[in-house]
Predict the structure.
Amino acid sequence: MRLPTIVTGLLVAGILTLATGTLDAPAQAAARSSESGIGIRLLEAPVAARADKRAWAYIVDHLAPGTVIHRRVEVFNTTGSPKQLSIYSAAAQISDRKFQFADDHTANELSAWTSMDRHEVVLPPEGRAPVTVTVAVPDDAAPGERYAMIWAETAKAAPPGGGLAQINRVGIRLYLDVGRGNPPPSDFTIDSLTAQRSPDGQQAVMAQVHNTGGRALDLSGDLKLTSSSGSQHHSAGPYRVQTGTTLAPGDTGSVTATLTEQVPDGPWRARMRLESGLTKRSAEATIRFPAAGAARAVKAEMDTDPYLMVALAVGAFLAVLAAITFLLIQRKRRSRREPSNA
């Protein structure tokens, strides 16, 4: 009979595989399990994604059917005793607005496409070892986004006479979109802001977010509050948004920023700034904190996409330039047709 186990672990940093060139990953792009002193980190990241924070957090890629990629990671042991690690891929999914991984070695399509050049590693005290991860997409793979995990795991047997076995594992999220051509765009809207007050008086602002793009989102960001009364101007924040919300394409969910100090009830002009990778959006609404519970949701006013503004400005300039050029050509043609008075 199999003994029950206690499973603990941390989700870790990864790479965004949207370019062929790679960069050495920073040492801080790692995670470790405090229970066992094991960790995992990336050894490379794409050159094109150097400005993308998400590029140092997850393996995210868009691949055509029949494509094979290789990515390097490193496992390490920060304890003073040897550790035996099992390295494998397993299923994951986005459910209830969170990235959720399956138990044990449960497989799915993406984990079946993913392999490692080393499945068992024995690390000496303070030791480390590289591992190459290969993802091979079948020629007949259907379009769509899939999710999986790459795990490094150490197990502690149950004590003699019975008890609980412990399994500690750390891993890297893997997001893969299959399809030909360019990857689907990432985008989202911030639809409303809601002021809240918990039973113990803690104030917070919740944003309702809709994933309108074609890729999953891992949301982070901050909240700022401003108010004006006559010549008096007040501000509060920024307050960090609680991370952990992941939205699949088409999903709607919420993120919350909790205030770290008490502020007057308002009214406040609340500005929520959110991002997922290089996709950044912000919105504002006028809110007032209730005495208890949640106030009525207020429709948020989205900021205009700065890239769209630039595109519109460039388009308008080119249109004016084309009109001037056309008028000059027409004037020149007329002058040629008119008879000379000489």
